Amino acid sequence: MTALRPSTGAAHSRILGYGGYRPSRVVPNSELVEAIDSSDEWIRTRTGITERRWATPEETVQLMATSAARDALADAGIDPRQIDCVIVATVSHMLQTPSLAAAVAHELGAEQPAAFDISAACAGFCHGIALASDLVRGGSARHVLVIGVERLSELTDQTDRGTAFIFADGAGAAVVGPSDEPGIGPVVWGSDGERSDLITQREGWPEALATGSFPHLTMQGNPVFRWASFAMAKSALEALDRAGLSVDDLDCFVPHQANLRIIDAMAKAMKLPDHVRIARDITDMGNTSAASIPLALERMRREGDARSGDTALLIAFGAGLTWAAQVVVLP
Ligand code: COA
User: Fold this and answer.
1) CATH classification at residue 146
2) Counting C-beta atoms within 10 Å of the first and last residue's C-beta, which end of the chain has fewer, N or C?
3) How far is Cα 233 from Cα 263, in angstroms, rounded to an integer?
4) Mean pLDDT value of segment 256-267
5) What does the pLDDT read at residue 159?
6) CA 198 – ligand 1 centroid, Å
7) Mean pLDDT score of the chain, rounded to an integer?
8) Residue with the nearest Cα to atom 26 of ligand 1?
9) Dihedral (Cα; 302, 308, 314, 316), 10-degree rounding
10) Cβ–ligand 1 contact at 282 (below 6 Å)
11) Residue 315: domain span
12) Would residue 237 count as lying in a domain?
């Protein structure tokens, strides 16, 4: 029998650089409350959100994704021509095909890399990092660009009391490449399709088109809150354990920026020591879904809360239900 030559990759992988793009339009709670019969105080108390960013018509998913990618490439010191795979995590690219990844790769000037989009909602960025790490270690790619981008303002019904104040827009990106030391720990990920109705599009495009409506997002806030606060804390601890670490070894905790109360409940459930710096980008960015973790990281670095060599625990979760967590060493 003919033996095939196996694919061989790098001994280890790591994040080489990261960056983000924050849309220009600031939307305070006061702008939303009338349509949903709410108040600034209610939104702040329940979610920690005071304002969010919404993309202008010019700030397309492609523009935001490309800008975040340029930021991450510059931080990594990697030329676009060195990228041989682009993964975009998004649910708000309005073209079913072609992928946003292929368009972004071309705009960046990458040389015909593999390029594809993934649909894992708010958990998309951590899925992308897990895939990128395995591609680098498996030998399918040397440098992978992972982007999370959303324009959820477009998918949100501004009169829906359950979602209008939560979701927002933005993009974040990271470059994953080879490493001499382990820089991305084992992923803990999964899905629970039985509870797909907790966060979902109200209807499919054909049904929406038939009735002239728009398939906005809908969410059952209470069960999502309970699931995220407790089950996700367990998954985060499992990722730490699989990396051979404990909470005492952590420098940064960077959970998906879904809701400030969820972030605080997770930190408490995980008994994080005081020295662990916790991402709280949500307060003036809202929930940017697949973009929230790289954006939160970028802010922590800018404000001196995340430094090169820090050990950070990432956990993302959302519609599906889906989740993914891993420990990374920051570049
Ligand atoms: N403004 C003002 N009052 C509102 C409101 C709004 N937008 N939405 C609901 N209320 C009221 C309800 O009518 C209810 O009033 P009542 O007590 O007089 O009956 C009260 O607030 C509680 O409603 P409830 O639906 O139980 O709210 P909640 O405490 O669960 O808070 C969320 C709602 C959405 C803030 C909360 O469930 C949450 O944060 N869930 C997680 C969402 C999330 O992070 N999703 C992203 C996952 S990726």
Assistant:
1) 3.40.47.10
2) N
3) 9
4) 96
5) 96
6) 14
7) 97
8) 222
9) 40
10) no
11) 188-329
12) yes
The protein residue whose alpha carbon is closest to atom 43 in ligand 1 is 258
20 and 145 assigned to the same domain: yes
The answer to whether residue 2 is domain-embedded is no
Rounding to the nearest 10 degrees, give the CA dihedral for residues 255, 259, 260, 262: -70
* 281 CA from centroid of ligand 1 (Å): 20
| 133 closest CA partner among 213, 272, 216, 13 | 13
Ligand 1, atom 42: nearest CA belongs to which residue?
Answer: 221
pLDDT range class, residue 1, cuts 50, 70, 90: confident
CB atoms inside a 10 Å sphere around CB 1: 3
Strand bridging mode 199-201 / 217-219: antiparallel
Q: Check whether residue 207 and residue 175 sit in a common domain.
A: no
Catalytic annotation, residues: 122, 256, 287
Q: How far is the CA of 49 from the centre of ligand 1 (A)?
A: 13
Tokens of 154: 């477009």
User: Are both 169 and 200 inside the same structural domain?
Assistant: no
CA distance 47 to 50: 9
Domain for residue 1, yes or no? no
